Amino acid sequence: MPMPTSSPDIATPGAGSTGSDASVASVASIVFSLHGVTKTYQMGEVEVHALSDVDLELRAGEFLVLLGASGSGKSTLLNILGGLDTPTAGTLHYLDHDLTHAGDLALTRFRREHVGFVFQFYNLIPSLTALENVQLVTEISDDPMSAVDALSMVGLQDRLHHFPAQLSGGEQQRVAIARAIAKRPDLLLCDEPTGALDFRTGKLVLQVLERVNRELGTTTAIITHNAAIAGMADRVVYLSSGRIVRIESNAHRVSPEEIEW
Ligand SMILES: Nc1ncnc2c1ncn2[C@@H]1O[C@H](COP(=O)(O)OP(=O)(O)OP(=O)(O)O)[C@@H](O)[C@H]1O
Ligand SMILES: [Mg+2]
Fold first, then answer.
1. What is the distance between the alpha carbons of residues 198 and 89, in angstroms, rounded to a whole number?
2. What residues flank ion ligand 2 with Cβ within 5 A?
3. pTM score, two decimals?
4. pLDDT by residue, tens only, the chain of 261 residues
5. Is residue 40 within 8 Å of residue 85, measured between CB atoms?
6. Domains and CATH numbers, the chain
7. In angstroms, how far is the first alpha carbon of the chain from the final one?
8. What are phi and psi of 58, to 5 degrees?
9. Three-class SS of the chain
10. Is the Cβ atom of 224 under 6 angstroms away from ligand 1?
């Protein structure tokens, strides 16, 4: 399994060796595999090829960055990985689950048990506090961390009772990250998580994502338009016109603090 059986105590970050550090990615097993994945939308007479013949394997614990021009298929790929969408052709496996022909029920279960999502806009419920927004998820999960621990992990232990309108954009995004990680997902999928944030705030959010990946061993994929972020990744996947045109491995991951853009 991609998650360590004994997760590090998130209340004492950095305590001891967790066995789930970034180096896992280089030797880790494959958790996700896509082969020949194609997604075609029929728009009247016109076929839109959002993805064409995509092969990709995700390794346990790795940090992946997806780059590509607008319309290149990044969100389509992420949505298929997360079970929000299904391919038109090709195969899709998560560990020993064959998701290729999964129906709505199976996909819903897959998402609930294994996937955390973070989007550009935070989708928090305005009438609930930060704590309550995260508790919505912890109450329906099998083995969640506490909502307070999740919010502490993103540095918001002093903002538990703030409503979204009382939080900055970066803080709201960190609540959204806490919500996504509270159920201890195996896979964390982020679609332009810093897209609505300024440089300084975006960096803070990236630090949180890097920390979650390092301390919890969560396999993480991030879409961005910002090529500077690629340095943070174990591997960088470049998409163009619905195809993966290049995958680069970074020998060393750059910490978000060192990234400039
Ligand atoms: N529901 C849909 N119906 C029809 N076409 C779609 C649909 N969703 C996406 N597409 C098309 O598929 C292609 C890939 O879209 P996708 O959203 O994956 O791109 P993207 O790389 O995420 O772009 P951006 O950086 O702008 O978010 C685009 O040409 C888009 O117009
Ligand atoms: Mg997109």
1. 39
2. 75
3. 0.88
4. 444 444 333 333 333 344 444 444 455 799 999 999 999 999 999 999 999 999 999 999 999 999 999 999 999 999 999 999 999 999 999 998 899 989 999 999 999 999 999 999 999 999 999 999 999 999 998 889 999 999 999 999 999 999 999 999 999 999 999 999 999 999 999 999 999 888 888 998 999 999 999 999 999 999 999 999 999 999 999 999 999 999 999 999 999 999 887
5. no
6. 62-84+113-258 (3.40.50.300)
7. 36
8. -105, 135
9. CCCCCCCCCCCCCCCCCCCCCCCHHHHCCEEEEEEEEEEEEEECCEEEEEEEEEEEEEECCCEEEEEECCCCCHHHHHHHHCCCCCCCEEEEEECCEECCCCCHHHHHHHHHHHEEEECCCCCCCCCCCHHHHHHHHHCCCCCCCCHHHHHHHCCCCCCCCCCHHHCCHHHHHHHHHHHHHCCCCCEEEEECCCCCCCHHHHHHHHHHHHHHHHHHCCEEEEECCCHHHHHHCCEEEEEECCEEEEEEECCCCCCHHHCCC
10. no
Q: 63 CA to middle of ligand 2, Å? A: 18
Question: Residue whose CA is closest, atom 6 of ligand 1?
Answer: 41
Ligand number with the minimum distance to the CA of 119: 2
